[in-house]
Fold:
Amino acid sequence: MIGRLNHVAIAVPDLAAAAASYKDTLGATVSAPEPIPAHGVTVVFVTLPNTKIELVHPLGEKSPIAGFLEKNPAGGIHHICYEVADILAARDQLKAKGMRVLGDGEPRIGAHGKPILFLHPKDMQGALVEIEQA
Structure:
């Protein structure tokens, strides 16, 4: 069921500074900031040869990232994302094995324009896991 690692998301308190660090210090290819109001975030993607880093910053007062940054003011790893071939089949298999899908259990469109779901961290060794249809 699980496919390749799509990205590692890092919540950052200063998106411009974080993007500059990857671009200017590490020499990475960095996208322009992309606001995603439906998820309450602004993202920047750092493209690596084998995966991506998603820099995530709060957008709006109800952003889920704002709460994360309150607890972790310097930022930190927020979630990891794995690809799946069929998100509905993956969801159903995971739920049948006792995994909790966050929200209403229905896929939403993520930053890449593809369906996504999040799995409860308590079911994934403390890590918030996103699955994305490839």
Notes: Helices lie at 15-25, 64-71, 87-96.
